[in-house]
Amino acid sequence: MTSFFLNGKPVTVDDDASTPLLWVIRDSLGLTGTKFGCGMALCGACTVHLEGAAIRSCVAPLSRASGKHVTTIEGLSLDFSHPLQRAWIEVDVPQCGYCQSGQIMSAAVLLRENPKPTDKDIDEAMSGNICRCGTYSRIRRAIHRASELAIEKRPS
Amino acid sequence: MNHLDDPGKSSLLGSDSSPALGTKTSRVPRRDFLKTSAAIGGGLCFAAYVPELAARALNNSPANDLSFAPNAFVRIAPDDSVTIIANHSERGQGSYTSLPMLLNEELEADWSKIRVEAAPVDAAYNHTVFGLQMTGGSTTTPSEWERFRKMGAMARLMLVDAAAQKWGVPASQCHVEKGAVIHGASGRKANYGSLVTAASQLKPPADIPLKDPKQFTLIGKPTRRLDTPSKINGTAQFGLDVRLPGMLVALVARPPVFGGKLVNFDASEALKIKGVRAVEQVPSGVAVVADRFWPAKLGRDKLKISWDEGDNAKLSTSQMLADFSKQSASPGAVARKTGDAVAALASAAKIITAEYDVPYLAHAMMEPLNCVVDLHSDSCEIWTGTQFETVDRANAAQVAGLSPEKVQIHTTLLGGGFGRRANPVSDFVVEAVHVAKIAKAPVKVVWTREDDLAGGWYRPMWHDRFVAGLDAAGNPVAWTHTIVGQSIAQGTLFAQYMINKEGVDSTSVEGAADILYGIPNLQVDLHTPKIGVPVQWWRSVGHSHTGFSVESFFDEVAHAGGKDPYELRRQLLANQPRMRAVLNLAAEKAGWRKPLRPERGRGIATHFSFDSYVAQVVEASVEKDGTVRVHRVVCVVDCGRVVNPDIVKAQMEGGIIFGLTAALKTEITLENGRVQQKNFHDYQMLRMFESPEIEVHIVPSELSPTGVGEPSVPPVAPALTNAIFAATGKRVRRLPIRAADLVAGSGAKS
Predict the structure, then answer these.
(1) For the segment B566-584, what is each residue's pLDDT rounded down to a tens digit?
(2) Nearest-CA distance B451 → chain A (Å)
């Protein structure tokens, strides 16, 4: 048995401790917003936050999450209140949408650490996430827009 | 929902197990593809589209539902919500937004009340040209442009009639606005939801006039996608996300060589993995069925399998490259002959020749293939992201031993498609039905990325050999093009529609046999080697190679004749006003004649595909180590009337990244019959840091809408390699572009 916090709630699972966190989240806990793309930490579709850091859950064993906080796309906000989600809607980023959970989770860490990223910062933070539909230019625009929205939101 | 229970409908359209109707569509298909109704796959029926019949394929609403469902495409509920039934799957191209826009242009419901539902499999949902339920060929809008507006207009007319009768006023005195019927003179107003019962009692109107396009309020306006919210909070349901009670998960170990056969296997270690339920042979290999994905994966890793690899174990793409080149030296089956190219070459002042190569390519959708099947003795329910419902249902029914109407397909969202999910033999669906037979429970078959890349059904490998003759003024007077590569249609149900008497598969020569340039003597011919690698349509199909080879060689011709590549294109497009306009605008927006930074080069290319006209200008540079940097892409498209300009732009942007990935990154190679690429480390995708600035311009048009999903792919590779030539003097004649060919002093020919 392994226990951890998923989107703030305590969960306990009986998967083997070596099972990748991705499959624990998807198959055992039923949250399917986190995606399987490669299984080798090459595409970023499975990106989640572990104690606030972006990790590739397809190669992170369950044991790594034991007792810790894991946040998935469902935990970012279901009601589209997060500046990234608002910007993603404004720019209409997704096409097929399959990679977008991972893109947003990577972008969330970038914006937290760097509220006003440059294009180069975005390149560095986002190049681990593949989008086969080719939405990169819109992702870039949406991150800049989310940065503005987040700054507007803050009390002066 | 089972429309097949409706006897009225099946007597008109024929049930799906009836013989072919033999009717012809009145519209001319753009490709020689499924021109007529025909029987395939054991009595599968392709019915032609007749709007009145679609109108009668009624009752798309669940039992006991009080909704008004005037036809198969729309349902209005008492709470004013409007459900639009989409018969083209959503794989990112925006069908779940553009189809509702078409329908609601006429219905004029409150846009915020629109929901979208995937259509079940039914002849009422067949493609209006191809005659089967499918998504592909960049044809969603062309197929539905008229039908969806008619279906919306039909609903509106009936709602207006219902209100007019209720109020005892002439319908002509009523109008609609944002989901309500209004009688201006009396100020009476009724929401659509309040009229559903009355409207359901009315007969559909015989005459359904459509708006004058000048009155459009939705079509042509940038409109946000309806599917975006679900794709950014984790709630969007892709095939891989489907979960059924008691569902098991399976992986299949497939042969390491195409066409290999199982000799025997030892499952003893696999069965020791906790959660593995069964390991059994299926026609495609050995299936490992487990409680969840991970034990299935671990179990499959533990299998010991012996395969009879067969003849394909000798396949090698480097050998094929040499064979193809040799074959291209002699002419093949003629696909186009204008004038006398051979004679014109003999008298030309200057002759240039070149050979081009492109590799096999995998679709590599971000969502790996998967399929959920719940099989019972008298029914089969399937959940998958597919582009090919009619074909999948017929193929699944055969394997399940059921009639097609006993097979239901729930089309989920597709995490990318690019053609792979329209498989002529429904490989990933059929295999899952076989697995369901041994699983004896609902089961989801999942492909890993490695399975996907090694799984075949690639864009074919192609070799193109050109000879051009120039006159003394440097103008091309003769052009011969010999193409070598596998046919996509050969050996499939589609061969009879796509391969002509001379043996020419139309998709092998599209973009080459129909080039728009006015060259007086032109010959295009084709060799079609048979090779045991399964091949398939891949975003832009034949155009994905002819765009590159034709537009690159055209650039060579221009330089050989001392002409500006843009000016020569302009000159030879004198009789092609739409392409010429697109080309001119691309050159203008890109600043064709403006000086560039010294290390940069500019390349231009045009390509006509899927009835759309595209021109692109790429700015690129090459670093000392041969690394290519793509700085800017200007893209101009004329795709007829635009439904949603923002989606058109997104498709152009996406197609450009897709095409650049093929130009710069990807190839599938085989040695000893084995695919060499495993995952995204050796089959690399373009990433954010390599993604250029993209500028899209749409030429306004009042002509019928044409393709959008694919036409931006073909021109980007040649525009890039032409830019590399402009920057370095090095001509790239094989893809993907190799840094080693571009380092200073390397031997690439110019």
Answers:
(1) 999 999 999 999 999 999 9
(2) 10
* Residues of chain A found within 8 Å of residue B652, distances taken between Cβ atoms: none
What tokens were used for B228? 């975006």
- Distances B455 to B294, B427, B444, B447 between C-alpha atoms, Å: 20, 10, 18, 9
Over residues B104-117, mean pLDDT:
98
Residue A4 contacts B, CB cutoff 8 Å: no
Q: Exposed/middle/buried for B332, CB within 10 Å: 0-12, 13-18, 19+? A: buried
Tell me the ipTM for this assembly.
Answer: 0.97
Across the beta sheet with B248-253, the strand order is B276-282, B285-290, B248-253, B443-446, B370-376, B379-384, B407-411
Chain B CA closest to residue A81? B233
| Among candidate residues B577, B575, B600, B576, the one with its CA nearest the CA of residue B590 | B600
Question: Buried b vs exposed e over B10-43: b needs ≥16 C-beta within 10 Å?
Answer: beebbbbbeebbeeebeeebbbbbbbebbbbbeb
Distance CA A19, CA B298 (A): 10
Residue B38 has pLDDT above 60, yes or no: no
pLDDT of B55: 42
Say how far apart CA B734 and CA B102 lie, in whole Å: 42
In the block, tokens 């559909």 appear at B204
Residue in B with minimal Cα distance to A36: B367
**Residues in chain A within 8 Å Cβ distance of B653:** 134-135, 137-138
**Are the C-beta atoms of A92 and B232 separated by less than 8 Å?**
no
What mean pLDDT comes out for the span B338-352? Answer: 97
B224 interfaces chain A, CB cutoff of 8 Å: yes
How buried is residue B212: exposed, middle or buried, by Cβ count under 10 Å (0-12/13-18/19+)?
exposed
Query: Phi and psi (nearest 5°) for B289?
Result: -105, 130
Whether chain A has a CB inside 8 Å of the CB on B413: the answer is yes
Mean pLDDT score, B442-448: 98
Tell me if A149 sits within 8 A of A83, measured CB to CB: yes
Position B696: which residue type? V
Please say whether the beta carbons of A79 and A52 come within 8 A.
Answer: no
Q: Which residues of B touch A33 (CB under 8 A)?
A: 233-236
Q: What stretch of H or E contains B75?
A: strand B74-76
In this complex, is the C-beta atom of B294 within 8 Å of any C-beta atom belonging to chain A?
A: yes
Give the chain B residue nearest A105 (alpha carbons). Answer: B232
Taking 60 as the threshold, does the pLDDT of residue A66 lie above it?
A: yes
Residue A101 and residue B413: Cα distance in Å, rounded? Answer: 15
Does any CB of chain A come closer than 8 Å to the CB of residue B365? Answer: yes
Q: Which residues of B652-679 are buried (b: 16+ CB within 10 A; e: fewer)?
A: bbbbbbbbbbbbbbbbbbbeebbbebeb
